[in-house]
Specification:
6 helices
């Protein structure tokens, strides 16, 4: 990962460039490893926040292994009013820390959620249903700068930048 790549530049590319051009630029910038913009953007930002190594498709359970060797599973979703599914599938194996980024239509951050395996199990945010383990968003703690530090964040600035990056032409939305 190029430490000099700025989140504002990444969001500018995503909002202004045609899709194929944006993919090419984001690969050169080290943001994308393949071509899944939404999920890889979340993983890339998590790496900027927590440090460590992105696992890409090489590991079926973890998206990131932090410099402290903690494992992270990162989920990124569009937060649309029509999105009725308020949970994320996380499989049967467990990471140490779970982070969910909920995005607005313009790819700015609407809300970040996060917690340790233990606290998510205790709060019943992580539970098993007939389709596997699910993280229920409404029961997860918000990933505030303080919570991010508690979970091992090395740099909370990307979280703040992303939260404040609403596109000028984006309608204000809230759920």
């Amino acid at each position: 990962m190029d430490k000099n790549v700025d989140l504002k530049d990444v969001l500018h590319v995503l909002r202004k460039d045609p899709y194929v051009t944006a993919l090419q630029k984001l690969r050169r910038m080290g943001v994308l490893q393949k071509h899944s913009i939404q999920s890889e953007l979340g993983e890339w930002v998590a790496q900027k926040i927590f440090g460590g190594t992105r696992m890409g498709s090489t590991h079926p359970t973890y998206d990131l292994v932090g410099t402290d060797k903690k494992t992270y599973q990162i989920k990124t979703h569009n937060r649309l009013e029509t999105h009725l599914n308020r949970c994320s599938s996380v499989g049967h194996k467990h990471a140490d820390i779970y982070v969910i980024f909920l995005l607005r239509e313009d790819l700015s951050l609407d809300k970040a959620l996060g917690g340790t395996l233990k606290e998510l199990q205790e709060s019943n945010a992580l539970r098993l249903d007939k389709h596997g383990q699910k993280l229920h968003w409404g029961m997860m703690p918000e990933l505030t700068p303080e919570k991010a530090r508690e979970l091992g964040a090395l740099d909370i600035e990307p979280l703040k930048v992303w939260k404040n990056s609403v596109s000028k032409k984006s309608p204000s939305d809230s759920i």
